[in-house]
Write the structure tokens for this entry.
Amino acid sequence: MTRKAVLVLACTAALVGSRAVAVDTETRLGFRRAAFLGRPLGARGPGMGEAFTAVADDPSALSWNPGGLGQIGGLQAVAMYDLAGPGMGLSYVALATPAFRGVAGLGVTALTYGELELRNADGLKLGAQSPMDAALALGWAAANPAFLGGWTGLSAALAQDVTGDLLWSANAGSVIPVGDAVTLGWAAQ
């Protein structure tokens, strides 16, 4: 228990000086690219005021804290739809299942912007377009050494935004039980 307490204090000290950072995306043409990857996914995390890092125990852990995937004992799925604005919608589905001496997860996210009219320089209607941002995420979590307990995981997402460019992001995190009712969680994006 002493090693675990020292490790928890060291992790806490290292993280105290850090700050939470949203998904790091390139800025182009005055807008943030792939910003939908920074939105809270799933229902439980936002319902808990985004205090989900140390709990992350459903397939949405793929985007919150991939180490939490390790807490999943069988096939599980989550799905959500967020009406993000008039004609805009954010859809998310994720699954996780034990695999390869750990737990594997897969998630798909799509942000639709509704239908937009296309016009030429003279204002003549050319048709319509339904732009969409989409991402595919894969993750895996494995058990930590026995003296530490808990799980550590990694996830990576490949996204295509409305510009047609491919972007990627990565997450890492752990969930470590430090007592009967206390769990330490960390995540980096």
Observations:
- Residues 2-16 form the longest helix (15 residues).
